[in-house]
Write a structure and sequence with these properties.
Blueprint (H helix, E strand, L loop, with lengths): L1 E7 L3 E8 L13 E6 L7 E6 L2 E6 L5 H10 L17 E6 L10 E2 L2 H9 L8 H15 L4 E5 L9 H4 L6 H4 L9 H15 L7 E7 L3 E7 L2 E5 L21 H9 L4 H10 L2 H6 L5 H9 L3 H25 L4 E5 H6 L1 H8 L11 H5 L5 E2 L8 E4 L4 H13 L2
Parallel strand pairs: 1-6, 6-8, 9-12, 12-14
Antiparallel strand pairs: 1-2, 2-3, 3-4, 4-5, 7-8, 9-10, 10-11, 13-14
């Protein structure tokens, strides 16, 4: 069977096509095709696709996400990366959906009611849920009534203890859905399972901190195979400093800006979600690659952005350790976590009292699914290539074969 995956992030639209013949393999196979739209590049949006050793890349002239996605799907059947004669060869489409609220904690067939629920939750995930709906509707236009499955990022965190999930505001608001949900759950769950495989230990026996560090970033404390704490909360805005999101700040700042600077609700939303984080400090980009490049040129603002990012990341790790009461492994994943040796090195510096140390040579050479701690280290430090797409494909396979 052929499974198409659409994974819309805050700055990218990643897609891939898997073919699964027979039973599910133990390890993720290579996709037949991969496509990406990168909206976060400082030199302009870009569409790229690859199938085997065949590649296609083009700068996007349109700002329409739906038109760009249609162009991405075209690369499945046309040009150098064509691997299908017709999109109708696809059996099912799986979508990563950031926010499922309390209603959706399992992979769910997409219906008009599910679409309405995703739309209703847009205020809680304004950078993501609209992109998910665009992807769902693009598939409806291209493939009609093909089965589409939503896999929710909030699901893995649905068992967080109430003491961690509840905000210290009047209790009645909890009944209205004002609580910590957590996000990046597909990635955190995959990375926890992969860490257990790499360590050759039962997942239920491990205390793990999984660090999903991309344009959006969050940590999860995983004990007994379950998320017991995480840094994101009611929305993906809470927690760590991110590419364009501020993370946790004094909430009175928003009140002050609205009262004294006459900032509108929409203006405050844009400021905190799209103009803050690394971009807010650097001033030009929220991409860690650009921050590091500007640091090399001697930029004081780039260095400040980097140091702030690491400072807040270490604070988050400390909070997760406290929730776990110990630590077996620290896991780095996603674009920054997998791709930046400088971030991993700076994060681990000063955490030796927790048993966290690095093998500098292993850390420097693009480790993927590797243990980069010294042999005698108390805490293992792993770099895991997070495979959200494969986790969604597995869910699609199980849905079809249930």
């Amino acid at each position: 069977m052929k499974i198409l995956i659409l994974n819309a992030g805050s700055s990218t639209q990643k897609s891939c096509l898997y073919q699964i013949d027979g039973t599910l393999p133990e390890r993720p196979p290579e996709p037949l095709w991969e496509g990406t739209i990168d909206w976060g590049r400082s030199d302009g949006a870009q569409l790229s696709a690859k199938a085997g050793d065949r590649r296609y890349k083009i700068a996007l002239e349109t700002e329409s996400r739906s038109r760009a996605l249609s162009g991405l799907l075209d690369t499945l059947t046309r040009g150098e990366t064509a691997i299908l004669t017709d999109l109708a060869e696809i059996d099912i489409v799986g979508h990563r959906v950031v926010h499922g609220g309390t209603e959706y904690s399992q992979p769910t067939r997409i219906t008009p009611e599910v679409k309405a629920a995703i739309a209703k939750l847009i205020p809680l995930a304004p950078s993501h849920n609209p992109a998910h709906l665009e992807g769902i509707e693009a598939i409806e236009q291209a493939l009609g009534n093909i089965p589409q499955l939503a896999v929710f990022d909030t699901a893995f965190h649905s068992q967080i203890p109430l003491a961690a999930a509840t905000y210290p505001i009047p209790y009645d608001w909890l009944d209205k859905g004002i609580r910590r949900y957590g996000f990046h759950g597909i990635s955190h769950e995959y990375c926890a399972r992969r860490a257990a495989q790499m360590l050759n230990r039962p997942l239920e026996s491990l205390k793990l901190i999984t660090c999903h560090l991309g344009n959006g970033a969050s940590l999860a404390a995983v004990a007994d195979g379950k998320s017991i704490n995480t840094t994101m909360g009611f929305t993906p805005l809470e927690g760590l400093m991110m590419g364009t999101r501020c993370g946790s700040i004094d909430p009175a700042i928003g009140i002050y800006l609205m009262r004294e600077e006459k900032l509108s609700v929409d203006g405050l939303d844009r400021l905190l979600n799209r103009e803050s984080g690394l971009k807010g400090i650097l001033g030009t980009s929220g991409d860690m690659r650009d921050v590091l490049a500007e640091m090399e040129k001697g930029s004081d603002r780039a260095r400040l952005a980097f140091e702030m990012y690491i400072h807040r990341l270490k604070m988050g790790i400390g909070a997760m350790v406290a929730s776990l009461g110990g630590l077996d492994a620290l896991v780095f994943a996603a674009g920054v976590g997998e791709g930046s040796a400088a971030v991993r090195e700076a994060t681990c510096q000063g955490l030796e009292f927790l048993g966290i140390t690095l093998n500098g040579e292993k850390n420097r050479y693009d480790p993927i699914d590797a243990d980069i701690a010294p042999v005698d280290a108390k805490v293992r430090v792993l770099v895991v290539h997070t495979q959200e797409d494969w986790a969604i494909a597995e869910a699609c396979y199980r849905y079809v074969h249930q």
